[in-house]
Amino acid sequence: MGSALPIVAVVLASWLCLGGQVLAALRFARRPLAGAETGKQPPVSILKPLHGAEPGLYENLRSFVEQDYPSVQIVLGVNSPQDAALEAARVLIRDVPETDIALVVDSHIRGSNQKVSNLENMLTAVQHDTLVLADSDMRVDRGYLDAVTAPLRDSRIGVVTCLYKGVSTGGLWSDLGALQINFAFLPNALLADALGIGGGCFGATIALTRATLGRIGGFAPFRDELADDHRLGDAIRAVGLDVMLSRYLVEDLVYEPSFAALWRHELRWARTMRGLAPIGYVGSVATHPLAITFFAAAASGFAAGACLLFAVTLLLRWAAAGAVARALGLSTTRLWLLPLRDGLSFSVFVASFFVRRVRWRDLSLDVAPNGRMTVAD
Q1: Which parts of the chain sit beneath pLDDT 50?
Q2: Least C-beta-crowded within 10 Å: which of 15, 154, 190, 195?
Q3: Is position 82 within any domain?
Q4: 200 and 302 together in one domain
Q5: pLDDT tens, residue by residue, 169-228
Q6: Which domain holds residue 9?
Q7: In 216-239, which positions are buried (b, 16+ CB within 10 angstroms) versus exposed (e)?
Q8: ∠ CA 9-10-14 to the nearest 5 degrees?
Q9: Residue 144: CB partners within 8 Å, gap ≥ 6?
Q10: In a domain, 212, yes or no
Q11: Rg of the chain (C-alpha set)
Q12: What is the pLDDT of residues 310-342, one digit of tens each?
């Protein structure tokens, strides 16, 4: 009996975590969405670093153009004149000639993080003092820009950032990728925020002023950081400013063409999280209740009591996911895949303790314990 106590304790912690996720999602859903008064909206430059012709790229970019906002500049950037994203960028410029869109093609690379190099190159084309950075796979509605820039009127806020919900582009692997975002990453991030231990800064949206960016040394300090977005948030807090999590949820278009692509993507993300908060990451084993109870049942020879514990945990997991989905407006069409999704998530969790090299786009990267990276030989 004594040997089962640690398992029972972890399972109970997992159940509490599921309940906490639901409460955090409900609390988040009740937050008001910020907005500025008409006439008090400063001109904004949106920076969109691009790489590759991912599905839906044109529509993603178009959603940032079609904003209910008075003055917007779009800055698109690529590191190579052969980048496949250029086709969508040029079609967008052709389709909306009345929009102020700058296209920066610059192969100058500084450091191992090519996205950061891209952003540094793009700064030369920026016209306005309010900046919004957003990854290329994000899609928004017309009220987005007003919502994420309005809080910057408060001088205590250095950055406004957004969480995101996954929208699958179709296929099993993309569906599993979206499930990971919606029913693992997102509720855990909301729970951490509710407990005051979150503090994340996410590439889905980073809104700040040019002056604030200058106070932290621009993008240069993040040239070799795997988690450049999180490190930027840390730097903002280090100069005495706050990182605000907006109520706005961005849509992340999830495209995973194969199991290998999904595995590489999620392993890189997991290795990033382990580098950012190693102790907390070990403790996050409590967010894998299905895997814990399954292995406990297997170790017991699938005894009746252990199997019952697994069944109860499965039902609670489904119920909590359904409640989070209703609170945040998430799709539940593939929720039956959740046990498979959780098994894969636990495998990624375990594997992240045994890797130092990850794949990011076309590069192999060696990741140091502190999260800094170098291009592998």
Answers
A1: 1-2, 376
A2: 195
A3: yes
A4: no
A5: 999 999 999 999 999 999 999 998 998 887 789 999 999 999 999 999 999 999 988 888
A6: 2-27+274-375
A7: beebebbbbbbbbbbbbbbbbeee
A8: 120
A9: 63, 64, 67, 248, 250
A10: yes
A11: 21
A12: 999 999 999 999 999 999 999 998 999 999 999
| Residue 127 φ then ψ, to 5° | -105, -25
CA proximity to 349, closest of 259, 270, 247? 270
- Cα distances (Å, whole numbers) of residue 276 to 44, 52, 56, 239, 281: 31, 27, 31, 19, 8
DSSP string, 256-313: --SHHHHHHHHHHHHHHHHHH-HHHHHHGGGG-HHHHHHHHHHHTTS-HHHHHHHHHH
Question: H helices within the chain, ranges in order?
Answer: 5-29, 57-65, 85-95, 114-122, 144-149, 172-180, 186-194, 210-215, 228-238, 259-276, 278-283, 289-299, 304-328, 338-351
157 token code pair: 């806020």
Q: Which residue has the tokens 């929720």?
A: 335
Select from 67, 206, 207 the least CA-distant residue to 130.
Answer: 207
Q: How many degrees, rounded to 5, is the angle at CA 40 between CA 35 and CA 43?
A: 95
The amino acid at residue 222 is F
